[in-house]
């Protein structure tokens, strides 16, 4: 069964450093998402991406964040200058079509720790 | 998207049915009810979804009341591996949210031996 994959599974970085989190969505999916979950808190939507552009983003997704689909298979989330409060699990998800009936599938997540 | 309300926690004995309720009294006609679960800190796992008819798949059954103001997720024979946080999410089919999922706190289901 096709799966969303994410790398790395864990990342430790120093405050102020740039990090890139990588995702490989399911191959015939067209909509891509990033969510995050701070320890002990809810899963929060960050951004959705379709047709090589951002379709929606949350207030969390400020200028420090960017997303890219560089090569037609990977989908990346970049945090330009990490802060302590960026420490969280980051989940990538993908969906096949526009209609809501198409289910969104999540990857296993990347645990980011900012020191 | 409509707000959903779930009990914070529930217990279930292994082998018994787990019935997880969800209240979505303000749900609109074109909003689907989706259920996901999250085991430890793994990625949310899709379980089932429905609009107004009851649905069943290999994982669970979804019972939606006739007025659509509430629903129940049924795990027919719960196992220890079903211990997880279960999320009920209303998703607008006709909106411009591009499928964004808004997670609440969910229900922590603990399955006991």
Task: Compile the SSE list and pairings.
The complex is a heterodimer of chains A (about 120) and B (about 110).
Chain A: E1 5-7, E2 10-13, E3 19-24, E4 31-37, E5 43-50, E6 53-57, E7 65-68, E8 75-79, E9 88-95, E10 105-106, E11 110-114
Parallel strand pairs in A: 2-11
Antiparallel strand pairs in A: 1-3, 3-8, 4-5, 4-9, 5-6, 7-8, 9-10, 9-11
Chain B: E1 9-13, E2 18-23, E3 31-38, E4 45-50, E5 55-56, E6 61-64, E7 70-75, E8 84-92, E9 107-112
Parallel strand pairs in B: 1-9
Antiparallel strand pairs in B: 2-7, 3-4, 3-8, 5-6, 6-7, 8-9
Description:
The complex is a heterodimer of chains A (115) and B (113). Chain A is built from no helices and 11 strands. With 115 residues, chain A is mostly beta strands. In chain A, strands 2, 4, 5, 6, 9, 10 and 11 form a 7-stranded mixed sheet that branches. A 4-stranded antiparallel sheet of chain A has the order 1-3-8-7, with no helix packed on it. The N and C termini of chain A lie far apart (37 Å). In chain A, 34% of the residues are buried. By secondary structure, chain B is mainly beta. Chain B has strands at residues 9-13, 18-23, 31-38, 45-50, 55-56, 61-64, 70-75, 84-92, 107-112. In chain B, the strands form 2 sheets. Chain B has a 5-stranded mixed sheet, with no helix packed on it. In chain B, β5 and β6 (61-64) form a beta hairpin. Chain A binds chain B through residues 4, 31, 33, 35, 37, 42-45, 48, 50, 55-56, 89, 91, 93, 95, 98-109, 111, and chain B through 32, 34, 38, 41-46, 49, 87, 91-93, 96-105.
């Amino acid at each position: 069964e096709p799966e969303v994959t994410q790398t790395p599974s864990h990342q430790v970085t120093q405050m102020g450093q740039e990090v890139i989190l990588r995702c490989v969505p399911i191959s015939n999916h067209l909509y891509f998402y990033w969510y995050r979950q701070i320890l002990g808190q809810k899963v929060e939507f960050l951004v959705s991406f379709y047709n090589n552009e951002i379709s929606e983003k949350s207030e969390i997704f400020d200028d420090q964040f960017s997303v890219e689909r560089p090569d037609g298979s990977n989908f990346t989330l970049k945090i330009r200058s990490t802060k302590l409060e960026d420490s969280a699990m980051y989940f990538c998800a993908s969906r096949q079509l526009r209609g809501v009936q198409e289910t969104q599938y999540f990857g296993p997540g990347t645990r980011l720790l900012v020191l | 998207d409509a707000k959903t309300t779930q009990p914070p926690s529930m217990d279930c004995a292994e082998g018994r049915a787990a019935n997880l309720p969800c209240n979505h009294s303000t749900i609109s006609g074109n909003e689907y009810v989706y259920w996901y679960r999250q085991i430890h800190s793994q990625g949310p796992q899709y379980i089932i979804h429905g609009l107004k008819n009851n649905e069943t798949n290999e994982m669970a059954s979804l019972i939606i009341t006739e007025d659509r103001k509430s629903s129940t997720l049924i795990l027919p024979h719960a196992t220890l591996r079903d211990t997880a946080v279960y999320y009920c999410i209303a998703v607008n089919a006709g909106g411009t949210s591009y499928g964004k999922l808004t997670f609440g706190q969910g229900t922590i289901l603990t399955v006991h031996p």
